[in-house]
Amino acid sequence: MSETAPDCIFCKIVAGEIPADVLGRNDHAVSIKDLNPQAPFHALVITVDHHDNAAASAAADKASIGHLVALADEVARESGNADYRLIANTGTGAGQTVFHTHLHVLGGSPRMSETL
Ligand code: 5GP
Ligand code: ZN
C-alpha cells in the first residue's frame, strides 16, 4: 500500500483521480507534463509515495530519489532532450508550491527557467 495524503493534488494525479499528460512511469515514480511549462520541455517526475519534499523522501528511502532521476532521464531522452536540468524546490522560500516530492525536468534551451 502506497502512502498518500488527503487533498494532495499529486497523490490524486498518481492515483488517476485528476487527469494529466503522463509521459512515463515506473513502480516508484510517475512523470507528467507540467501544466504551466517554463521551458520548451517541462516535465515533472513525482514520487508514488507521498512525502513533502525530496529530503523527506530520501529520509524514508534513499533509493526513492534514484528512481526519480532514472525516470527523469528516460522521459527527457524519449522527448529528444538528452541535455536537461533537474530542479527540486524545497520549502516555500525556494518557491515550492506542491508539497509532494517532485523533480522539474527542463529541456530545450540552455540555462532555462532561472525563475523556477
Ligand atoms: P513547485 O512550485 O512545487 O516546485 O512545482 C509545482 C509544479 O506543479 C508547478 O510547476 C505547477 O505548474 C505544476 N502543477 C500544479 N498543479 C498541477 C496540475 O494539476 N497538473 C500538472 N500537470 N501540473 C501542475
Ligand atoms: Zn501527495
From TrEMBL:
Pfam families associated with the record: HIT (PF01230)
Record-linked InterPro entries: Histidine_triad_CS, Histidine_triad_HIT, HIT-like, HIT-like_sf
PROSITE patterns reported for this sequence: HIT_1, HIT_2
UniProt short sequence motif Histidine triad motif, positions renumbered to this chain: 100-104
Location of the HIT domain: 9-116
Protein name: HIT domain-containing protein
Lineage, top ranks: Bacteria, Bacillati, Actinomycetota, Actinomycetes, Propionibacteriales
